[in-house]
Design goal:
Length: 249
């Protein structure tokens, strides 16, 4: 489905289709399937069939479905599919705090609200920009591979920080964090790129987490345990601080 404008008045078209497979995953799926064919040729069916099913799982992991991003300059949308596991006030990461040395401002040192989205291996792992703007920083930090659901994963795991700035200077930072199984963070953007809200900016292989750092005058519109859809779920509105409550049922 090509990009199109749809609205809540019924304009536009919608229909189900098989999601595309991102090129990053095709080589892995085909490699596993090729190995299954080798074992099938050798009559080792006890290995051939599991590998054939595994190749389908690998392709499913790298699926890249079309998303419809709500339009609105103050919307901050979820950068990742998954479950909201943490919402807390924390200082921004050191890599996003200060001036970049070339006149580019960071998020500052005062605590901000961090929303952590945990992605299981069953979630789509394509990450998207939380808002429209210019990519100001893409900073990769090597580290450990702890369980991404742990709070300390934000400081100790392999991660990549991205800072997006709107035309009016408002900034949102987010961090892609590798987990127990995730072993590579793949960026699609670089500093200076202009992105739209919901645009694909990278992926993390095999289970991980994304932290979003909201502006100081902004509170999330999501609650713990809520399921996020990357590029579609509005997690906050710039300069809005509503109290949102949810019922687990």
């Amino acid at each position: 489905m090509s990009s199109q404008i749809v609205d809540n008045r019924g304009n536009g078209e919608a229909g189900w289709s098989w999601p595309a497979i991102h090129p990053e995953g095709r080589k892995y799926g085909l490699a596993v399937f090729g190995l299954s064919l080798v074992f099938a040729f050798l009559a080792w069916e006890t290995l051939a069939w599991p590998l054939a099913f595994l190749s389908l799982g690998v392709l499913a992991f790298f699926r890249d479905p079309v998303r419809v991003t709500p339009q609105g300059e103050d919307n901050i949308v979820a950068p990742a599919d998954g479950l909201v596991t943490l919402i807390e006030q924390v200082p921004p990461p050191a890599e996003l705090v200060s001036d970049d040395g070339q006149g580019g401002e960071g998020l500052g040192e005062e605590p901000v609200t961090r929303v952590s989205i945990f992605m299981s291996v069953f979630d789509v792992h394509i990450n998207r920009s939380p808002m429209a703007g210019t990519i100001k920083r893409v900073i990769y930090v090597p580290g450990k591979f702890l369980n991404a659901d742990l709070d300390k994963a934000s400081e100790e795991n392999e991660r990549q920080h991205i800072l997006v700035e709107r035309a009016d200077g408002r900034r949102v930072g987010f961090t892609q964090i590798a987990g127990l199984v995730a072993r590579r963070i793949v960026p699609f953007v670089k500093p200076g790129d202009t992105v739209a809200a919901g645009q694909r900016v990278g992926l993390i292989r095999f289970g991980s987490r994304v932290d979003v750092y909201l502006p100081r005058d902004t509170q999330p519109r999501v609650v713990l345990g809520q399921k996020m859809v990357a590029g579609e779920t509005v997690i906050a509105e710039m300069s809005q601080q509503p109290l949102i409550e949810g019922v687990s049922q």
